[in-house]
Amino acid sequence: MMIAGRKGQWAIAVVAVLLFAWAHPYNGIRHDGMLYMAQALKHVDPAVFNGDLFFKYGSQDSFSVFGRAYAFAVVTLGVAWSSLAGVLIGQILFVVAAGLLIWRVLPENSRALACCILAVTAGTYGSLSLIHFAEPFLTARTYAEVLVVFGLTLMARGKLTAAAIVCAAAALVHPLMALAGMLLCWALAVQRHRGWLWLLAFGVPAFAFGYLGVAPFDRAFLFYDAEWRQLVDRYNFVFMTSWPLASWLALVADLALLGVLALRQRDAYFSVLLKALFVVGIFCIGIALLGSDLLSNVLITSLQLWRVQWLVHLVALIFLAPELLRAWRGTSLEQLAAALLAYGVLFQDLATGSLAMLMGLLLLYAGAPRGGHLSRFTLWLSAVCLMVAGGYNWWNQAGLIIRMGEYLIGVSALDAGDKARILLQQAPVGPLLLGLCVIGLIWCVRRSQTAVSVILIGLVAFTAANWDRRFEITKVVENTPVQGPHVFADIVPPDAEVYWQNDALAPWLLMHRRSYASGVQAAGLVFNRGTAIELDRRRDVTSTFDMQREICGLLNALRSDKGSCEPDVSSLALTCEADPLLGYIVMPNRFDGWALASWTPEVSEAGRESSLKTYYLYSCAQLIAKSKTINHKAVDAS
C-alpha cells in the first residue's frame, strides 16, 4: 500500500527510520562488543589487561584508533553510558549515511521502499550469519561502515578523491571493513583512467617490508601450520570452505542480485558503479579462497576478504527497490518474482531465503521477457506459502531469544509484555508488521496533517521508550565504575587469572581482572599462533566443567529433571591443579566452607519473582590445599 505524493513518501521514510531503531534495540555489551570493551579497558589500565589472553600475544587493536577513543569515552562517561551513547550515535550516523546514498542514487518513488527494506532486514553476512551491518552493540565496524557509505555517496556523485579520503579514514577505524570501499574507489578510478593502475606498484615495497619482517607485511610470508589451522577452524569461521551451505547460498544470491541489477541499471554511471562492485566482490572472494583456504596464508586470512559481502549486500538491497516496484506493476509472473525477491531479502540468512531470491531472479530476468501470466489461485497459494514460511522462521528465532533472556536473568518465564516486545522487535517480520500497521493508519488519515503528525510523534515516543532493552542484571554489570570499587577486588590481586564460568565480561568489568579463558577471546587466534595454542590449552583445562555439564544435562533430559548441572568441589580442585596460572574460579554454586566470598547482584525485577543467582569466589590455592588435606585424612583413616 503506497501513499501518493511527496509528503506521503516522506512520512513512510520517517516510519522506516523509526522502525530501524525499533528493530535494532540496545541490549548492552554483547557479542563482539565485549572485545571492543576489553580493548578500551586495556588502554585505561594496561598493567592489568596487557596480560589478558586476548592481548598477551598481540591483537588487532594495534591497527585501529577506535580502542583509544573508546577508552577516553569510558573514562569520561563510564562503561554503561559510553557503550549506549556509542551505539546510538553509530545508528544515527548509519541512518543518515544510508539515507543520503538512497536520496542520491534512487528515483523519488522508490526511496521510501528502500528505506523500509533497510529498516526491516537483518543485514547479515558471513558464516552462519553471525555478523550484520549497523550492529546494535558497539564495535569499530559500525563507524567504519558509516564512513564507507558516505564514501559511496561521494562515488555516486563522481567525487572519487573525496571518496578515497573518507574510505582511508574508515581504514583508521577498522581496516578490514574499509578495504571493500577502498578497492571499489580504486576500481572506479581505473575505469575512468587506466593510469591509476600505477597504484599496484605499492605492492613492491609492501613485499620488501614483509621480507624484512616489518609487521603486518611479514604475515605475507607466514602460513598456518596444521595445528594452528585446525584451531582456527575449530573456534572461528574465517575459512570459507568451512562455511555451511546456507552461508554460501546467501553470498551467491547477493552477488547474483548485484550482477543482475548492474545489467538492468538505466543510469550509465550507476551501472558502472554496480559492475565495479561486482568485480571487486568476485576478486575478494577468489583471493580469499586461493590465499586463505588453499594456501593457508596468514596475511590473506587475517584480511578476511569475504567481508566484502557487507557492501555487496547493502548496495544490492538499496538498488533492488525500484526493480521491485517495476515488477509489482508488471505481469502476474513478475509479481511472483517480486514476492520471491522480497522473501529472499527478509530471510536471506536462511537457505530458503537465498533460494527464493535466486528463483525470483530467474523468473524476473529470464521468464519476464517472454511474458507469461499465472492464475489467481497460484498467486494466492504462493503468497500463503511464503507468509507461512516467514512466520515460522520468525517464531522460532523469537522463541530462541526469549529462552536466552530467561536464562540470562534467571527466571522461569518472561512476562507477556517482554515476550510481546521481543516478538515485535525480531527482524524482519515484527518490524514489518508494525510498519504496515503504522503506514495503514497514515493512509487512512492522510488528508489530516495533524493526525499524521500525532501518529509519527506516538511512534517516536514508543520507539524511544523501548529502545534500551537491557535486563537489570546487564545494567548492574555495565554500571560498575572503571576506577572505583570492584567485586572481590580486596581478595583477588590485580595480576590474577580469573575463570568466571561461561562469561568473559564479568571478570573484565565486575572484577577489573583478567579472564582466564572464554569463547570471545578466540577472536584473536586468527592473527596469533600463541593465542591459538594457549587458548586451546586453557579450554582443555576447563573442559572438566563442560563435560560434567553435558553428561548431567543429558541425564536430566532423560529424567525430565531441571536440576543443577554445575561442577562439584572435586572438579574445581582438579581444574586448579591442571594449570598453575589459574588463580580463582567464580561460579553460581555454593560449597560450604570452600568459598572465599559471595556476590549477589542488586536487581529489582518489578512484578516478577526472580531467582537471582549468587556468585561464589573460590581460590585455587585453597582448593588444592584443602583437597590434599582431605585426601590424606581419608588415606590415614583407611
Keywords:
638 residues, five-stranded mixed β-sheet, two-stranded antiparallel ribbon, 28 helices, 7 strands, 65% helix, globular
User: How many DSSP H or I helices?
Assistant: 28
First-to-last CA distance: 84 Å
| Fraction of helical residues | 55-70%
Instruction: Give the low-confidence spans.
Output: 606-610
The neighbouring-strand order within the major sheet is 4-3-5-7-6
How many strand segments? 7
* CA-based shape: globular
- Tell me about the biggest sheet? 5 strands, mixed
Mean pLDDT: 86
What would you report as the Rg, rounded to the nearest angstrom?
27 Å
Strand content: under 5%
Structural class from helices and strands? Answer: mainly alpha
Q: How would you explain this protein's 3D organization?
A:
This protein has 638 residues and is mostly helical. Among the domains are: 142-200, no CATH class; 484-637, no CATH class. Helices cover 65% and strands 4% of the residues. The protein has 28 helices and 7 strands. The strands form 2 sheets. Strands 4-3-5-7-6 form a 5-stranded mixed β-sheet. Strand 1 and strand 2 form a beta hairpin. Helix 6 runs antiparallel to helix 7. The longest helix is centred in the middle third of the chain and has 34 residues, at 376-409. The model is unreliable at 606-610 (pLDDT under 50).
